[in-house]
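Fig. S4 source data, part A: sequence.
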Amino acid sequence: MYNLRKLIGWVMVGILFFSLPALPGWTQDTPTFPLSEPQQQQPITPEPPVQPSPTAPGLNDPQEFEAFVDKIINEELSKSHIPGAVISVVKDGKLFFAKGYGYANVEKKIPVIADKTLFRVASISKLFTATAAMQLYEQGKLDLNADVNKYLTRFQLENPYPDAVTPARMMTHTDGTTQRLIGIAAPTAAEMEPLADYLPDHMPPIVWHPGKLYSYSNHSIVLLGYLVEKISGIPFIEYINQNIFQPLSMRRSTFLQPPPPPIADDLAVGYQYQNGNFKPVPYLYLNIAPAAAMSATATDMAHFMIAHLQRGRYQNERILEADTARLMHQIHFTQHPKLPGTGYGFRERVENNIRAIGHLGSLRGYSSSLTLIPEQNIGIFVATNSFSGVHGKILNQFFDRYFPVTKKPASLQPLAITDKQLNQFTGTYRDLEYPRHTLAKISAPFKHININKGENGTSYWNLLGFEF
């Protein structure tokens, strides 16, 4: 019995090892209590933008900004063991700042150069796939609210619910599918599967009522990329190249794996820090290309940010009509009116009463972040060639420095809550997004959260036995 338990334990550790570094996602019975009805087509309206403090410098001087960001990134490179990083910032339709830090290749001492070094941007790829789908929408070729099975001929989604899986719900991750980890990557480039062959056998089942819950799923966007390919009649990678990269002059960006010559040698090596050394991680060949396979330079990403901030226009080119870009940026689903929501591809964040939209990326050996602040016409892209949270520290300090809150919010008063109400919330919870139909489902207990009743009408929670 002991050996069996030990074997199961090692299997779970193995699954965690191979799944966690890949892409975001995963999740006793959960206590039942009424959920708030999800809000759709009702964007959250943030408080009026705060007026900058008289002492706030304003984002006007690239040299002042360079000193600000240098301090944060250089500290993090050392403290968090990050080999290399890059940042690009756009403002008012122009590149405001771009700079590389550290090494793209530690062994060869090759520095990160903002307009030369490519980074794998992981799930930021989803914004490009969603943009492509919106191009087909404005051409009248893709109905955002149609049953996706209308477009599928080689296979069909099995949907046990009365509400349809639609492109709109796929872009807001409310289509009812969840994560799948096994099979998302291939050992070699030659063994990667075309979307038409991969999806019939690997599309996760629909386990939630479409339109009711946000559950992040890579395969929602993989399927969306397949629709782009099928409807346009052009392979997905070539469609993105022709209709997004070329109009935006993104000449050092690609969905090809690995990047093709002559840019292949400029891809930053992904690293993990182990035992005091940077260890290169193997290149991950992804079968889920529309969700995570893109590589790009920081300056190329600046062009994409400018286009979205300019409502689809970059210089004399247009990738979306203004109304389509506005529709893409709107919030189309939120679980509760007081919570941030999701647009078509973009996730919302409200910081210092300022609304931002964007996406994060995380892949073994890489982290990235893209943030747009529409009302300020500012965009920020950050990437590293290791798993890190440096982008979060930059953004938090950015908002506090350049758009500080001059008035502190009123302190929240404790809620008066009865024992009966408190008992409703105690129990064991699991993440919605854990894999449900492969061996990886045994990873679910690693994400259990226990809510326990404390003293004096309080509660506390713990994750894997650690109390918070």
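Fig. S4 source data, part B ends here. Residues 1-52, 463-468 have pLDDT under 50 and may be disordered.
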